[in-house]
């Protein structure tokens, strides 16, 4: 069995909780240790997003062709768009000898559990639903309708995260410095004490 440092690391958690923020800091601090699993998506790029870096941006037709070809380890529909992890992206990162980090939603996590990937699962939780709402709006990337859709999905993602043994670790992203220290330790293969999932019923 691979040591924890080399097992893929899956980050999941509701949209707007801060997953990309944590990842950006990690990749900036350790440019050679980790590799991001660049997913395919049919959503439009946000300002500043670069094809091949945050995502491979593809059409629905192309995405469906990739499904037919069996290119994806997992794929899901989220908030009206398709997202998927290709075997190729994970293979490329592993070939470089880096730890592969995936940022995927709950249906994808469920699908990965049925594969031989054997990752470490980490759920990033907001401290409260109100803070999640604020962050999602504050990011300024979503329309009002998209924020509402993402928040509705967040409720389902959190319910799923409450099921026993769903994730190896929970990190509550309240204070960013604290959350990043824990995330960094985990990514470096150290054991951390998992946080308790907040009630999130506000
Ligand atoms: P995700 O990738 O999970 O969708 P982002 O990383 O894009 O989320 O973060 C959403 C917004 O929340 C961003 O504007 C980010 O700057 C902000 N944010 C991230 N972490 C914190 C935190 N601990 N406290 C306050 N705001 C945060
Ligand atoms: P966003 O549109 O904000 O970049 O991502 C929306 C959601 O899609 C996030 O929860 C993110 O984790 C998830 N996501 C990104 N890539 C993939 C993927 O390849 N597969 C799955 N299942 N979810 C993904």
From TrEMBL:
Q: Which residues form a coiled coil?
A: none
Pfam families reported for this sequence: Guanylate_kin
By its UniProt entry, which HAMAP family does this protein fall under? Guanylate_kinase
The residues covered by the Guanylate kinase-like domain are 6-188
Supply the NCBIfam families for this chain: guanyl_kin
Please give the Gene Ontology molecular function terms for this protein.
ATP binding; GMP kinase activity
Q: Kindly give the SMART domains that the UniProt entry links to this protein.
A: GuKc
Has keyword Repeat?
Answer: no
Its name, as the record gives it, is Guanylate kinase
Among InterPro entries, the record links this protein to: GK/Ca_channel_bsu, Guanylate_kin-like_dom, Guanylate_kinase, Guanylate_kinase_CS, P-loop_NTPase
Q: Where is the signal peptide?
A: none
Database matches in CDD domains: GMPK
Report the EC number(s), separated by commas if there are several: 2.7.4.8
Keywords of the record = ATP-binding, Kinase, Nucleotide-binding, Transferase
Family statement: Belongs to the guanylate kinase family.
Q: Reply yes or no: does the keyword Cell membrane apply.
A: no
Taxonomic source organism: Guyanagaster necrorhizus
- What are the record's GO terms for cellular component? cytosol
